[in-house]
Amino acid sequence: MSHTRNRLNLSARVLTLGILFLFAACSEPSQTTKDATNHLEHLGNPFLEKPVMARNVWDMKVFEGQLYFGHGDAVANSGPIKLFRYAEASKQFVSDFTVDDESIHDFDVVGNRLVIAGYDPREAWELGNFYRLEQGAWRKHRTIPWGIHAYQLSEFEGKLFIGISTDHLHPSLLSSSDQGATWFDATNNQFLDRAFNKLIVLNRQLYATGLLGAGTVKLENGVFNDANIPVERIAPGLTPDAPMLIQKLEYFKDGVVYTVGKRQMYTTDPDEERYETKAKAAFFSSNFQDTVAIPLPENSVPTDILLKDGRVLILTHRKLEAGFENIVIQSGDARSWTETLRFSSQGFARSFEFLKAQFYFGLGCYFIEQSCNANGDVLRLTP
Asked: What pTM, to 2 d.p., does this model score?
């Protein structure tokens, strides 16, 4: 599906920050671990049939003892996309299903079932897709009106909600009372020029965010309306010199841990616009009023968040002269952080998971980098 005719990007308006937040108040997590590089196992790269950017391991998810991988490229249109999982018994990557979209960008668990929001359908744009693991088999649901990019599925008060980007003529927040068989406008025809990539439940309220400068909305009596939450309450301390949006998010304790990235456009082809979001900071908030910045290792970029044994872990990386150093930090309260492991790799660790006492890492690459030979490699580490 060509993106040169309809480039559907989130609105680029960003509010000016009205407060000053001092990151210096947050100290870097203490280094408590030795380098684990020599203990890494290289499991392979199941995405080699795809172009280099489509090998990015955007997300990994453990569900019912299986480890699933998301990859693809909705700009270069690399679909259809095989859904891979790692089979420990055979020590191979196995694909049991293919999605009719250009990328698998995120996995969500909704109602105790694993789901994938279709990230750019390969069919006509009048309907978008979502995929759900039902009784051990994946099923495609082509039911989302104008779901050109479907970002996240969520459940709230007995209904499904989804945030999408459309042709800017149709609603971008939808609700369903029948598990996704039919969808209805949840905005009262508002916000047609916006897209919403995250649905967040805080204090029994459902919020939706896209580009933070465009504003956050809240569900009230079945309809989303502006929540009037300033950007500085979501991403305190980040300078709004580029469009910003929430990327990774996990619920923890009484709030959420999330990363916020800035979008930039890199143009190497006049007929193709390439937008890329790079995380700049991580935060913890319980109500978007008490948001605190999470202290990250110096000069590091946070790329993924994982819950494990009552603790929250954040995967970060920083550039070396050759390759990257990847560092995982952890906390039991989202306020005090310590380092739990570090290792070096040719590509940076974009996503991670934990299964049967072992860490798994999926390597990634930024579009502006010249060398992405390790993009899509999957590594395993036994702590």
From this structure: 0.91
